[in-house]
From TrEMBL:
Superkingdom of the source species: Bacteria
Name of the protein described by the UniProt record: STAS domain-containing protein
Organism: Leptospira jelokensis
Amino acid sequence: MEIKDLDYNIQYDEATKTVKFTGSIRLQNLPAYEPIKLFLRDVAKLCQGALLTMDFRDLQFVNSSGITTLSMFIIDSRKSATYQIKIQGSLNVSWQSKSLSNFKKLWDQVVLEIS
């Protein structure tokens, strides 16, 4: 499964249960993020009882609407609690250490790896 755009790519690898984000996501508003929200919801259905890894290390930028969409996904995941989430980030991308650590505040079961 994959979402391709000129500026970003979101790809799900079923073998490793990993969603990899690359590029820069600068959509206009929350409704514009609906395809990404639905994509993540579909991925979550495939990961029941497993660990879902979300790899942001190659995502250079995401705006506030994108962070909100990702946060809502974490909250929905916490409510269902049928799979675990591991977040991977990079210290080399300035927004990641602060923003990704907020996901741990939304759900204390999130595994956070920022290196």
